[in-house]
Write a structure and sequence with these properties.
39% of the residues lie in helices and 19% in strands. The chain has 197 residues and is an alpha/beta fold.
Length: 197
């Protein structure tokens, strides 16, 4: 069994302005760096120093920098950057405000935006990416803890899959720097702890 911890990247200026980022590569702001440090400190307090651990991230800079900050606190290298862990691609909605997205294409994760990745495509990519990460981790350690820094929409899809669409509940927000914990065994994903704002 693999213990999987998914951490949402720290805040960016586009998060603060409530703009859709998607695959647009936006850096962390200072608040985001603080959130990344807080996430790293929380992990350091929870995990035993000699626990086998693999730290990875999406290859977008906001997730990569969050992982770098966490890695410095845990004194662990970032073992890989996985494009499969990127945020949902939002097509024509990238860069627009959340309110404008709702006005033009509808509200919620099922909004139909031209050129956007569907929820189904995102879920398939996320799960195959996590399977790849866990296979890579298990090649070196039999039961490692995998910490993966990723993105809000991707983590929401993993949560929905693991809970048969029960979580996240309507109105639940996954805060920047928040952690969701799962067990992964033989391709089965089970939620262990849930953190929503």
């Amino acid at each position: 069994m693999t213990h999987l911890i998914l951490i949402r990247h720290g805040e960016t200026d586009w998060n603060r302005a409530r703009r859709i980022q998607g695959a647009t590569d936006i850096p962390l702001n200072e608040t985001g760096r603080t959130q990344a440090r807080d996430a790293g400190l929380a992990l350091r307090d929870r995990l035993d120093a000699d626990t086998p651990l693999l730290l990875v991230s999406s290859d977008l800079q906001r997730a990569a920098e969050t992982a770098d900050i966490i890695g410095a606190i845990l004194e662990r290298p970032v073992a890989g950057r996985y494009p499969e862990l990127r945020e949902r691609s939002y097509g024509e909605a990238e860069g627009v405000s959340i309110d404008e997205l709702a006005e033009r294409w509808g509200r919620g994760p099922d909004a139909r935006v031209p050129g956007a990745e569907t929820r189904e495509q995102l879920r398939e990519r996320a799960l195959s990416g996590l399977a790849r990460v866990i296979a890579d981790a298990s090649a070196d350690e039999p039961s490692p803890v995998v910490v993966a820094v990723a993105h809000g929409a991707l983590i929401r899809e993993v949560l929905a899959f693991a809970t048969d669409e029960q979580l996240p509940a309507d109105g639940d927000r996954l805060g920047n720097g928040s952690a969701q914990e799962f067990s992964w065994q033989d391709g089965l994903l089970r939620l262990l702890s849930y953190s929503a704002a």
